[in-house]
Amino acid sequence: MAARILHVDLDAFFVEVCRQRHPELRGIELLVVGGRRDSRGVVQSASYAARRFGIHAGMPIGQAVRLCPEATFFRGSFPHYRDASRAVRAVLQRFSPTVVMASLDEAYLDFAGTDRLYPVSLLPVAERLRDEVRRETGLDCSIGIGPNRMVAKLASDSAKPRGLMEVRAGWEEGFLAGLPLRALPGIGPKTAARLAELGLAEVHQVQAMTEDGLERLLGGEARALKRRAHGHGGATLRAERLPRSVSRETTLSRDLRDPEELEAILALLTARVAGQLREEQLVGRTVTLKLRHDDFHTVTRRRTLETATDLDGELYQAARALFRGAFADVRRRNRGVRLIGVAASNLGVAAEADLFEPPERQRLRELSSAVDKVREKYGFSSVTPAAALRFRRRDD
DNA sequence: TCTGGGGTCCTAGGACCC
DNA sequence: TCTGGGGTCCTAGGACCC
Predict the structure, then answer these.
(1) In this predicted structure, what is the pLDDT of residue A215?
(2) Which residues span the domain enclosing A323?
(3) Which of A23, A92, A280, A318 is the 20 to 30 A CA-CA neighbour of A29?
(4) What pTM, to 2 d.p., does this model score?
């Protein structure tokens, strides 16, 4: 059964969702979403008008301000994005039983086995899909169609904005030949620079080489690159699996040197991670602490627990111990801390009940589910971990 | 005001085991 | 007589993606 994958990519998703939710932004052509003017963040998305000034996702906000001081900078809100994304998914699910959201603004649809239904082209389906998404959610999208995920995605990239492109089976190599290697998934800035030093910049160059020749240049990576250059990659859509990690991190509005203040923030971040684990009925066994020094030197420290947990206290205990170890280095280097974060990984599904669980742990579990209920009703900050009180009092 | 936040996957070395 | 070899688990870091 021939694979046929459709990739839907929403155009300027974050910008458009902000416009829908904040009508005062609608008349503003030059709109940049991601953080306020003075934030230490990066651009999440920019309106097409702002992009003409060279602003793009991932660019530091400060740099975007310099490129286009007259632009409006807006922070945006995750729940709004999430709700908009779900609304789009609901439309997509009417077109295929297999819809995999790759992120908030991207989805893959499986059309394998539709050769009789649509013997020639999927473009008419894509057109209807685009119109229905537009009509029901007010959002524009671009759609790429291909024999696998990679080609479908590259096709939608080429089609942006508001375009459709189909690459039929057999035409992958020709389509890819005109692209830079950097366009291939997995070829980021570092790899692209390394390949460029070897004289490789375009997909057609890799296509023209033998695998042995490429192997002499690249070693073990040759095979994977060769496959991608010829248009292979992701013929099936795998169902969604358990997440691999749950994390929260924050870049502080100013660099901090006070460990107590940092521990208070760590307590809040850990409570968020624990809350998400419980919400998704997961438990984590490995706790990772992340610290970024003010000179951008970044370290992680991790610890694997005896038993997986979703309890604030157990996660925090591990996180704090890791923090104290890592903070000793910060102090030794006489630096401040720019970013602090915590992650739970090594995840499993939370067990229904454990008959042999010690009673004190049972009490903690009851406590956290009570906290979860209050938070569900009144918001996360209605309950604050004691360890975070100092931070709350100071900066709220 | 340079450089976010949430993820995924991979590598490499050490410990430990058989 | 100097050191095998595979597998698994663990930690730390890094590239990449949106």
Answers:
(1) 87
(2) 245-395
(3) A92
(4) 0.91
